[in-house]
Amino acid sequence: xxxTEFIVATAxxxxxxxxxxxxxxxxINRFTRVSKAEVGELDRMAQALHExxxxxxxxxxxxxxxxxxxxxxxxxxxxxxxxxxxGLRDARQEAEEMRTYIERNQNAG
Length: 109
Prior knowledge:
The chain is an all-alpha fold. It folds into two domains: 1-33; 36-108. It contains two helices and no strands. It has helices at 3-32, 36-108. The longest helix has 73 residues, at 36-108. The chain is rod-shaped, with a radius of gyration of 45 Å.
């Protein structure tokens, strides 16, 4: 093979490699291209996701406020229950003292 044949063969090989590369690039671009409808759909989905996140954040805030209110009510109710139980205990003790006093006076009299 002389020099001219070598240059022509190399040029043909390089041209075929270029054509295969270009075809592969075109093929990949053709399959990965995003249409305008798909972009619109992605925008719509992104907007819906954003709205859903805002709704979730609002729900979390509402639940935290509600939990704080209920915890406060529970604390107040427990305090009232303790006060009522203390009052009942005192009333029972006083009633027992009165019974004892009455029995002593009946036995003495």
